[in-house]
Fold:
Amino acid sequence: MTATPPTSGSPVLLACSHGTSSPIGQRSIAALVDVVAHQRPDLHVAAAFVDVQDPDVPSSLDALGETPVRVVPLLLSAGYHVHVDLAEAVDGREHAQVTGALGPDSRIVRLLVRRLREAGLREDDVVVLAAAGSSNVSAVADCRQVGDELGAALGRRVTTAFLSAAQPRLPDGVAQARSRLTSRGGRVVVATYLLAPGYFADLAASYGADVVTPPLLIETEPPAAELVEIVLDRYRGV
Structure:
């Protein structure tokens, strides 16, 4: 969906994801945007990216002219891309604003729990939440909050580990989790706190955990209703 001036009076919902070279990841994000548009046929919904893919946000905003726009980051935490890339993209454009990121949100925690249940989580498994990581302290804190909420929902300790930029790194988190196993049948299970398939999801699966859940979007399934609801809530300012 391209950013062209709409005919309705509501602000455009410009759904901005990171971007990926993974065709599966691209299709998964596109499916989410399509379902959001289907849920709100009264809105003009368009997609943009902060990296890797086109169009970027400045180009999309230029194409929309003076049309009011709400840029909804399809990002799980508000790190550099939200606070710098998107903030700079809308700077000086009074008609454009950036909403909150998708997470943290209790609905995402529920989705993570469902992914773990679907993967066959056992009582004696040790769970590690795998997040992308960020150089932004508040974004890292948001990821840790999700890990804490996931642990509360599961009734067990969950360690949050990162694929880049923050500590502990996921290989260390997996190793520490393995040292905490208390039974021969216990396993290290990684809960993948990533939006879509791609490089980071492949990386998360490569660090020796016994079970790794898929990311929040799965190509072979419709986008989770929780994610669609959150995108629309962010657009509304919720």
The two ends are 24 Å apart (CA to CA). The mean pLDDT is 95.
